[in-house]
Specification:
- This protein has 13 helices and 15 strands.
- By secondary structure, it is an alpha/beta fold.
- The chain has 2 domains: 133 residues, 2-Layer Sandwich (Nucleotidyltransferase, domain 5); 167 residues, 2-Layer Sandwich (Nucleotidyltransferase, domain 5), CATH 3.30.420.
- The strands form 4 sheets. It has a 5-stranded mixed beta sheet, sandwiched between helices. A 5-stranded mixed beta sheet has the order 12-11-10-13-14, sandwiched between helices. Strands 1-2-15 form a 3-stranded antiparallel beta sheet, covered by helices on one side.
- The chain is globular, with a radius of gyration of 22 Å.
- It starts with a helix and ends with a strand.
- Bound molecules: zinc ion (ZN).
């Protein structure tokens, strides 16, 4: 057992969860994060609200809450809302048992300064000192990360299957975004601009996009594009359960309603989804040809469609990517569906604390604190893979 592992067990970060007989020599010890000893907090900034969570290191949610944001908030209003959310989340918790606060924001960040630099969807939030403000207020380390990258980190740290050294995470919802993990670490790019999958052009003569480009994938592969296709196909020629599910008001279309129609085997919804998967599959096939990832995880609000979306999407990808790029690739839906969105922000604390030099930093911090008192909350979620073995 290495020094680091022994020390992490001593500090209450890791615990033994079993052993594995490899057939030769003594059995290897299976390790996972200790449950209920230490905690991480996460705050995810969305356009209209902040989602917040406190979880133990294994990802079991201890507290969850949210606060609403005023319309078109400025940076100060977001910081004030984040402080009041963290007060709710951390109330009564021993701060010595909290490793830090992760903050996920849409748009661009300066990680080392903890600054939220800019966001097209929230234009009054520029150069917001998110992490320093929360760190000063609560006396805890705080870290900021782009929201899509934070979601990719949640797959790595908290999803039931999380063997993701090499991952293309694709978020499909109101927009389309991506994050890339290479050797387990975020690949941010030379100017922090990697992952703009929604703005690769799939139609040079297509509609002008707000990014300045033309024919961007996002205009054809967001949830709004899917709703447009469904509405167009509801012309009365094919029988559908959708008008009844929507009380005749097609403007009430949502991902949940599309899911209900798909579950009922609705032909309009099924055909709409097939049509929707053509541009989406094209964009993903392009990305696969370029990056050749071992795993692709689909997250965002459309992940709620589960296998209904996955099946036609895989058909399109296989038809368009090179056979070598699709060979053996694992394409799946997010393992975080149904869990608080702010788990993504909490995963940022894991990434900083337990990767590379972060482990040493985390150990130094823990060795001065008493963190062995246990009050384990009930475990949640499915069976998890142990995070490693120690001989
Ligand atoms: Zn664009």
């Amino acid at each position: 057992m290495s020094f680091h592992v022994a020390e992490l067990i001593r500090c209450g970060v890791l615990e033994e969860v079993g052993s594995k007989n490899s057939g030769m020599g003594r059995p290897a010890v299976l390790l996972d994060f200790a449950s209920g000893t230490l905690f991480v907090a996460g705050v995810l900034v969305e356009i209209h609200r902040l989602d917040g969570v406190v979880a133990d290191l294994r990802g079991s949610v201890v507290r969850w809450d949210e606060v609403k944001l005023p319309p078109d908030p400025d940076g100060e209003q977001v910081v004030a809302a984040a402080k009041s959310l963290c007060r709710l989340l951390l109330k009564g918790l021993d701060a010595r048992r909290v490793l830090g606060i992760g903050i996920g924001v849409p748009g661009f960040v300066d990680r080392s300064a903890g600054r939220w630099e800019e966001c097209g969807l929230m234009p009054r939030c520029r150069d917001v000192e998110m992490a320093p403000a929360l760190s000063r207020c609560f006396g805890l380390p705080a870290f900021v990360e782009n929201d899509t990258r934070a979601r990719a980190l949640a797959e790595k740290w908290f999803a039931p299957e999380r063997d993701f050294d090499d991952l293309l995470f694709v978020e499909i919802g109101e927009g389309v975004g991506a994050a890339l993990l290479v050797n387990g670490r975020i690949r941010a790019g030379a100017t922090d601009a990697a992952g703009e999958l929604g703005h690769i052009s799939i139609d040079p003569n297509g509609k002008r996009c707000y990014c300045g480009g033309r024919g961007c994938l996002e205009s054809q592969a967001s949830c709004y594009a899917l709703f447009d296709i469904v509405r167009r196909r509801l012309d009365g020629r094919v029988k559908s359960v959708l008008p009844r599910l929507l009380d005749g008001d097609l403007e009430k279309l949502s991902v949940e309603v599309v899911r209900q129609a798909l579950d009922a085997g609705d032909k309009v919804a099924l055909e709409a989804l097939k049509e929707f998967c053509v541009p989406l599959g094209t964009g993903l096939a392009n990305a696969m040809n370029l990056l050749n990832p071992g795993h692709i995880v689909i997250g965002g609000s459309l992940a709620l469609l589960g296998d209904h979306l996955l099946r036609p999407l895989i058909v399109e990808i296989r038809a368009r990517a090179t056979s070598r790029a699709v060979r053996g690739v694992d394409i799946r839906m997010s393992g975080m569906v149904g869990r608080p969105a702010a788990m993504s922000a909490a995963a940022v604390v894991h990434e900083v604390s337990f990767t590379g030099r972060g482990i040493a930093h985390s150990l130094a911090q823990r060795s001065t604190q008493t963190a062995r008192r246990r009050s384990a909350p009930p475990a949640e979620g499915g069976r998890r893979r142990p995070i490693g073995v120690a001989g």
